[in-house]
Amino acid sequence: MRLHKVEHGDGLISPLLIRFISLVSGMRLPDAARLVFYHKKFFGDPMSVWTHAAMRGESAWTVAERELMVVMTAKWNACPFCIGAHGAIVARVLGRPLVEATLEDFRQAELPTKLQATLTFLEILTRRPDELTVKDARAVLRREVTPQALEDAIAVCVLFHITTRCADTLDYQMLSERDFDRAAKRLLVQGYAFGKGKTPAHPDHRALADTVRQRVLEGPGETDATLRQAMAERATGGPPLEAPYDDLARQVGKAAYQVTDEQVAKVVEQAGSERAAFELIVASALGAGLHRWQRGLNVLELAHKAA
């Protein structure tokens, strides 16, 4: 991972907990979990709450269908770690052949019509959010997908739009197929928030998204909130920033898989610490995700009103 502090944990408890979990599980704790343990109140805690609720809470979508949405979001964002991690979860439920067929061409895979229509919508939302239209939302609603179910799907896509950008920017270490499968087994049982394996009620996505936004972009941190907000805005094509922040924010927003060690190192040096750089990276990823969140909701609401 590009930030050693994130990899090894901060404070007194997290490093010990990371070592303990790795020892007990017999495998290296995945970097996705290490990120959750780092600077927890800033990002890990609110992000985990929303993710767990969206992925394991009440929904018209099954757990496997939501995980398959994640797999495709990861593919569209070119994030091999998330493809491997979430593909392993789907494979445990629906079989590896279906995962491979969906990755090859979800329109030709043996998926429910509702899911195929929703994936078509999510692909536009991910790759070309500004081109998403009311017509695209209507096409999904006509497949007997309820407005609430489409909002659930948008939330899943946006959450992992943020997550994949963090994964690629920080350069998560890939796991073996065996370890991905072992991690998948745990995630199916426990979910995405430690100690919260129970199925939550249907989530209030808008409130949960706003909690993450407020904490990351407006709350206290090692960096100035104004700079975090500017990084988030720049990740969606907003006004230029001074070097080296501009280069990193643009790259995280455009194609995080192309972020380089040098770009991250320059921000660490300029910001003054890895913790500060972490805040700015998360802010950039969040900005790119929340841009899609708002776009998806706006289109959905207009389509629902018209119907």
Question: Would you give an account of this structure?
Answer:
By secondary structure, this protein is mostly helical. Helices cover 72% and strands 0% of the residues. It folds into 2 domains: 31-201 and 293-306, Up-down Bundle (AhpD-like), CATH 1.20.1290; 211-290, no CATH class. It has helices spanning 4-8, 13-25, 31-37, 40-56, 63-76, 80-94, 96-104, 113-127, 134-141, 147-170, 177-190, 205-218, 225-234, 245-255, 261-271, 274-306. It starts with a helix and ends with a helix. It comes from Ktedonobacter racemifer DSM 44963.
Overall tally of structural domains: 2
Category from helices, strands and their pairing = mainly alpha
CATH topology of the largest domain: AhpD-like
Low-pLDDT segments = none
The profile of the biggest β sheet is:
none
